Amino acid sequence: MIRTSHDTTSSSPQEGDSETNHRMESRWIDVSVPLHNAMVHWPSDPSFSIKRVKDMKHGDTANLSVISMGAHSGTHIDAPLHFIQQGQGVDKMPLDTALGRARVIEIRDIESIKPEELLSHRIRRGERILFKTQNSSRVWRVSKFVEDFVFISDEAARFLVERGVRLVGVDYLSVGSFKQGGSYVHKTLLSGGVWIIEGLDLSQVGPGKHDLICLPLKLDEGDGAPARAILRPVRRGGA
Ligand SMILES: [Zn+2]
Predict the structure, then answer these.
(1) Choice among 82, 121, 186, 210 that is catalytic
(2) Is 82 an active-site residue?
(3) Ligand 1 centroid, distance to 133 Cα (angstroms)
(4) What is the distance in A from the centroid of ligand 1 to the CA of 8?
(5) How far is the CA of 71 from the centre of ligand 1 (A)?
(6) I need a surface site. Which of 35, 81, 116, 177 has the fewest CB within 10 A?
(7) pTM, rounded to two decimals
(8) How far apart are the CA of 168 and the centre of ligand 1, in A?
(9) Which residues pair with 52 in a beta bridge?
(10) What distances in angstroms separate CA 166 from CA 8, 21, 117, 185, 195, one per listed residue?
(11) How confident is the prediction along the chain (239 residues), in pLDDT tens digits per residue?
């Protein structure tokens, strides 16, 4: 399923100059955020909690936890059903939607992602695009919800749909603005055939091509579901 263009170069038995590249290319990076009590959540969503209800420390034969959470906690997939009443649930997501080649695009704008900045990146039909904004180095380090995170502008949402991307990933808890409301951006992307990953931590990855593995839990008719997401750089600095 995961094919990488560096297979030919890394098949060389010689290490030498390519050693650094090889090491970078073969390292999988976890871009999901940990789920834990008191973690940040969308203000109007339920909070996350995990509690050990059987505990070997207290004489039980096994450890066992119960969890309670909104389906959009931490790193997660948004299904069309999140904003479209007749839309597909997360269980209907084509399996290769978030499996395969993806491109990390570094965004300089500290307010929002805009078409003007995207133009130079020549986004093509069918691409999986993950936006690394200033969020990644900022929002996951604080325990309070950050309201002024970098979001996808309305214009950029339309632009991405017109370009025909298949997946968009963002590095905080919504594709849309907190202050202006995120409905339009969600509806535009989800009704335009674009699946969404929210809640990525891209602080440890650079821009360019990567292999992506991300699968949501199979929640029947789920409007969203928590997911584990990992990335492996394909080529140093490649875009
Ligand atoms: Zn969501």
Answers:
(1) 82
(2) yes
(3) 18
(4) 38
(5) 8
(6) 116
(7) 0.87
(8) 12
(9) 65
(10) 27, 28, 19, 15, 6
(11) 444 444 433 333 344 445 555 554 469 999 999 999 999 999 999 999 999 999 999 999 999 999 999 999 999 999 999 999 999 999 999 999 999 999 999 999 999 999 999 999 999 999 999 999 999 999 999 999 999 999 999 999 999 999 999 999 999 999 999 999 999 999 999 999 999 999 999 999 999 999 999 999 999 999 999 999 999 999 654 44
